[in-house]
Amino acid sequence: MAKRRQHSGCARTARTAALAAALAASCGGVGAEGVAVTCTNPFSGASWQIAIDYDLKTVDSNPALIDEAEISWRDANDGWRYTLDRKSGALTVVLASSTGGNFLHDQCRLPN
Asked: Residue 78: which domain range?
């Protein structure tokens, strides 16, 4: 039978701390410069959250253009383009298609 190596308590604690840090980083939690924003469809009342990371310049992990007036990004999953007005919270969604596409208008509550 193979012998099990015994590790010191310090080594085990260090491994646990490193694993916890890696897990926290990989979970995409909203950090000090990130914010969770709730958006609502004014017609249906359906709401959802988007995660804006100002440091990484991403929205829901998608690359974004962020300036003082607006935040815009393209969702890699559905190909839709989003523009969020930072002052009013108006969110415009552009759904491109071969028949001309559509525009959706939603409202987001940005923190002050």
From this structure: 31-109
